[in-house]
Amino acid sequence: MAFGGCKNTPGNTFQGYVEGEYVYVASPYGGRLLTLMVRRGQTVPPDAGLFGLEAVEENEAVARAEQELAAQKAVLADLRLGKRPQELDVIRAQLAQAKATEERSAKQRRRDEAQITSGAISRADLEASQAQHTADAQKVRELAAQLAVAELSARAHQIDNQAALVKSAEATLAEARWRLAQKTPAAPAAAFARYLVVDTLFRQGEWISSGTPVVKLLPPDKVKVRFFVPEQAVSRLTLGQRVLVRMDGWQEPVNCRISFVGPEAEYTPPVIYSNDTRQKLIFPVEAHPDPPPDFSEATAATNPDAAAPVPARPPLHPGLPVTVEVP
């Protein structure tokens, strides 16, 4: 086709062909092909599932990561709560008993202090009741302090360490889910409506190595016209310039815009330049078709009267020979 651009055609008409920039979808991990969700010639929207590989190991990894995260979150919650309610109830009961004992010893101390002046009790008995009351009061203060500590959560650094473990478990789970998602690749996200499935490269049951393409897609905005112009005409072409593309079986020309002009010649004769050999130089040029009208097929199907009918899109199939006219 490159040499076809050197034919004797009018000065503003050149030969070329349609070319597509394909998207080859693969998984970064290997596995047996279990499901093939698309077929050749079908159109699919962005983010649509394309195929699925066996993922026994990845599913198990996700389950383990979920269990580990749940365990770490439970430990963190326990650290923030302090002791269990049953343990707190035991300390509260001990504190109530100690308070009752302290009240009895306080009454006994007061009686002994009242009787010491009359000689009813000895100085030793008074000192014993005073010491007992002091010990009982100290026991009350001790249990009250234990209850206050038991109601507190764990130390700040322990909580911070456990929170870091929870974040690590969350990251592990996110990674496991990402690896699982890579076993069911989808069409890349894009602004246009649908991809064309050009080919499926494997059958169900076959083993797929990591990184091996399984589905070949053609984005609608990656169809272009590639044509060749001689040396004397390349200087007249500029980026964004409009050209008309004609093909057999299609009456109206297709409007395209030049998106690339080759900086180097495709063919250079193995002799020094002369007036004759310079005419053999050709330069590659690429042009993209204008976008189609903004009217979705879904709207036309559900409400035919919503707008004017959408004109049929030109059949710009990769490999199709075309004639390009520069106005």
* Structural Rg: 42 Å
Low-confidence stretches: 1-9, 269-275, 293-311
Structural class: alpha+beta
Q: Class of the largest domain in CATH?
A: Mainly Beta
The separation of the N and C termini measures 22 Å
Specify the CATH architecture of the largest domain.
Beta Barrel
Mean pLDDT: 82
Secondary-structure element pattern, one letter each: EEEEEHHHHEEEEHEEEHE
What gross morphology would you assign?
rod-shaped
CATH superfamily of the largest domain: Efflux pump adaptor protein, beta barrel domain
How many distinct beta strands?
13
Cross-sheet strand order for the largest sheet: 1-9-12-11-10-13
Proportion of residues in helical segments: 25-40%
> Number of helical segments?
6
CATH topology of the largest domain: Elongation Factor Tu (Ef-tu), domain 3
